[in-house]
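Write out a record, focusing on structure:
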Amino acid sequence: STLMSYCNFRPGSTSDIDWVEFYYLGENAVGKRGIETTSSFTGSINIQYSSIHDTEDGGAYFAGGAGTTVFSNNVMWNVNTAAVASVYPLQFTSSSNPMTISGNVIIGAKGNTGGTTGYCINYATPESTFTNNTIAGFDAGSTNNSALQFSNSSNAVIGTFSGNVIHSNSTGGLYFSSSSAAVVGTIGTTTIYRNN
């Protein structure tokens, strides 16, 4: 029964956010999924050393055309508690702009309990840097979920992917969607264990 808020970063904006605690965020509506940049985002957003917790729908959703996105050394827990369809604790998606997602810890997030698919992280941005992240204790809510999904388009390049740990989740660890059938690149040192 707590009212939720959201942070929507608009095209052309420049934001540098460090050491901030975000909570009670997220609604199941475009532009309101916790911390969000729009698909036409052209500015820069840099969030580091911050925490995001107790969100209702989503957590952080990064899209963007020509924008710069860095999301590093953050901690997320108890995110996406409403667990609605097509809303993820962490999603980054851009067809043309690589992002940096590095050194984050996500604990106790929830997936889509009412639908057939949902992921803790939806990785849909080719050539991004995705390093040294940890996903643990993800409650999938459905058998077709996974802690981390690659949903890049066919022939997309993975980018830098190494040092990640995916463990103790109630679902699979890593999943390539059918649209990612011809993804190319190298998955570096990655540890995946104790997933259902």
The CA atoms of residues 18 and 45 lie 11 Å apart. The first strand starts at residue 7 and ends at 9.
